[in-house]
Design brief:
Distance between the termini: 37 Å
Helix content: 40-55%
Structural class: alpha/beta
Strand order of the largest sheet: 6-3-2-1-14-15-16
Radius of gyration: 31 Å
Low-confidence stretches: 1-20
Mean pLDDT: 89
Largest sheet: 7 strands, mixed
Length: 660
């Protein structure tokens, strides 16, 4: 018997042709335009069935509700490879903090330090323990248990898929099993996992597995690394830092002025090349040129001995490159009056043995200086030998494959600034006027300020390397040292420091940006310019050392501005009073950590020395931040919208399933 239906359940009576026409009209309303339809058909190749598409949508929506990953900000590395490597390994204290939460009530300080050093340097620590014959099955079981528990704890904020992708491939299956062990009624799984560990130890695979677990620990502790500029100069091993960064799973670099200098040298900019060589000589860091990048200093040694034979070799080399640098800078400034840097052309003012000179309204005494290659009538022309020397250096920089691999990394992973998760990250500054407005700077008949000015500089840097446009190549020197350059932001006084006796002439005025950004109003002006919240946004800078020795704080403007340059470089630590700052941003807030000087990796291995770090400031978020609150989360939401659009087309039959 067919049941009777009430009128409310009966669809309006329409002719069959009109019903079909209505469905056709509805489908037509869903139909995207041709260009959109082509894109969605391409996307359908990745998700050929409704089931595959639904699985991805469910997965992405679930990810949005996980806590945001931890971000690690480090600035002004200046070639200090060992200190940087240690900070990277201990994640600015994050790993110690997690280990103490898990094991602080179980093990003593000595064993805790031993465990942490193993995590930081697993291969090296294991080698030393083997030399002392200090390893037995009990040690392996205890350490493997601790490392598995620590990784299980760290992996809790990630999807199982993401954790699996982070695992070293050789041990991915075993790690996946061990990290997701669940107790059952008869402890079958736990027994199974104990057998895995026993077998690993018995067949001699404990060392390799520990190394794999330690690598996973560091990978899970920090989701993204931000290098806020100045990898090069002062310290000895910037090339080793870059080798380390090229292997990092998720890193970006905000270019600093010293990075731009080396990038300019790699572009073939002569003043940048001369400044790079001079800096290496000045900091006693010639090894990076000769051993790091295969750039020989022999032609310079021969030239310096011929021209400045009364000086010691290193002093002669430095003096020779200093004179060449000021000549090259003077010629470049003359070519580009739009730079507004005519006051930097000072070499001709002291040529011919002048003992006093007036600069910017002040009269300064000049050191007694030997300038045999400077013609008082044509001070900025290179001598024949100087030209030959620069030709040799230019060729050496051009032909260094390792240098160009590192420079391409800086271009591919780097930018002048980054706007991410509510923060503006930049090394230097956004030039401002004395009254707090964004400085208008003219180039090529147009004026740029704020974000547009930074975009212009980045575009020129990319044209210099990838297209080798002469004007853009010249511009790299301007970026390195101009007061209105966003990566410099101060008046460079290299000439005065070299030739003027009175130290008052050496003072370098800084851009008003740094004064204004100590106020909430100044920070608000910059945050608005980059589309960020005045109340919850932050500016993260490096470049300007924080003088902890004088009580200076890295946190300005009630937390809106954070400066994390505090003296990573050993040569700065007497002035700053510590070894710099790093910033950790997790789902709960931001933490600024101050570090004491690092001894050495050897001391860390032999005595479990760690960098003593002190939490200097905490900036909590108003609520815990999840993935949906991040830029990546917003990208995921946009992707979900597109996938749901594709799902609608599948269900309407406008795109057909494949292999269904």
């Amino acid at each position: 018997m067919i049941p009777l239906l009430c009128a409310a359940h009966i669809a309006p009576s329409l002719p069959a042709t009109e019903t079909a026409k209505g469905e056709e009209n509805q489908n037509m309303n869903m139909m995207p335009n041709d260009e959109r339809m082509e894109y969605l058909n391409l996307l359908a190749e990745q998700y050929p069935t409704i089931q595959a598409l639904c699985t991805e949508i469910i997965n992405l929506r679930a990810i949005l509700n996980l806590p945001k990953g931890t971000e690690h900000f480090i600035s002004d590395l200046h070639g200090e490879y060992e200190a940087f490597s240690h900070i990277l390994n201990n994640c600015s204290g994050v790993i110690r903090e997690k280990a103490e939460v898990l094991f602080g009530h179980e093990i003593g300080r000595e064993e805790m330090n031993d465990l942490l050093t193993l995590i930081y340097y697993p291969a090296e620590k294991l080698e030393r323990l083997h030399e002392r014959d200090a390893l037995d099955e009990g040690w392996y079981r205890r350490r493997l248990d601790q490392l598995i528990r620590l990784n299980r704890h760290l992996s809790s904020k990630y999807t199982r898929s993401k954790v699996r992708k982070a695992m070293p491939p050789a041990y991915a299956y075993i790690l996946d099993e061990l990290l997701h062990a669940q107790p059952d009624e008869d402890n079958n799984q736990l027994t199974y996992h104990r057998k895995i560990i026993d077998t690993l130890i018995r067949i001699g695979g404990g060392d390799e597995f520990i190394i794999a677990l330690c690598a996973l620990t560091k990978r899970l502790a920090v989701d993204r690394l931000h290098i806020v500029g100045d990898i090069f100069d002062r310290g000895p091993r910037a090339d080793s830092i870059l080798e380390l960064l090229t292997r990092h799973h998720a890193v970006d670099v905000e270019w600093g002025n010293h990075d731009i200098l080396w990038m300019g040298a790699a572009c073939g900019n002569d003043p940048c090349i001369a400044a790079v060589v001079r800096n290496c000589l000045n900091y006693g860091n010639m090894e990076i040129l000769e051993k790091g990048y295969g750039i020989s200093l022999r032609p310079l040694s021969l030239f310096a001995q011929r021209q400045y034979g009364t000086l010691a070799l290193e002093e002669a080399q430095l003096h020779a490159m200093t004179v060449i640098l000021f000549k090259l800078e003077g010629e470049l400034i003359l070519r580009h009056p739009e730079y507004g840097m005519e006051e930097r052309r000072l070499l001709h003012r002291i040529a011919g043995g002048k003992r006093r000179v007036t600069v910017r309204g002040n009269d300064w005494a000049v050191r007694e200086t030997c300038l045999p290659t400077v013609d008082p009538e044509d001070a900025y022309s290179l001598s024949v030998d100087e030209e030959a020397l620069m030709d040799a250096f230019r060729a050496a920089f051009e032909q260094s494959d390792r240098l160009h691999r590192h420079i391409r990394f800086l271009y591919n992973r780097g930018s002048l600034y980054r706007v991410e998760n509510g923060s503006l990250i930049c090394h230097g500054c956004v030039p401002m006027t004395d009254d707090g407005e964004l400085t208008q700077v003219g180039f090529g008949g147009a004026a740029y300020a704020g974000r547009a000015l930074l975009n212009y500089h980045e575009a020129m840097a990319r044209r210099a390397y990838f297209q080798r446009e002469p004007a853009a190549v010249d511009f790299m020197w301007y970026m390195w040292c101009a007061e209105l350059s966003p990566v410099c932001g101060r008046e460079i006084r290299t000439f005065e420091r070299t030739f003027f006796l009175d130290e008052a002439s050496w003072a370098e005025a800084i851009n008003p940006y740094y004064r204004h950004c100590e106020t909430r109003e100044g920070c608000a002006r910059i945050l608005r310019e980059f589309g960020l919240s005045e109340e919850e946004g932050h500016i993260v800078n490096g470049h300007m050392p924080i003088l902890a020795s004088r009580g200076e704080s890295p946190v300005k403007a009630s937390g809106r501005m954070i400066i994390i340059d505090g003296g990573f470089c050993r040569s700065m630590q007497k002035k700053t009073g510590n070894a710099g700052y790093t910033l950790i941003a997790n789902s709960h807030g931001m933490r600024i950590v101050a570090h004491q000087p690092f001894t050495s990796i050897a001391a860390a291995l032999d005595s479990n020395d760690d960098i003593h770090s002190e939490l200097r400031a905490t900036l909590p978020f108003s609520r815990r931040r999840m993935v949906c609150d991040t830029d990546n989360g917003r990208n995921i939401l946009r992707r979900v919208d597109v996938l749901e659009e594709l799902l609608g087309l599948y269900r309407a039959g406008l795109i057909r399933e494949k292999n269904a």
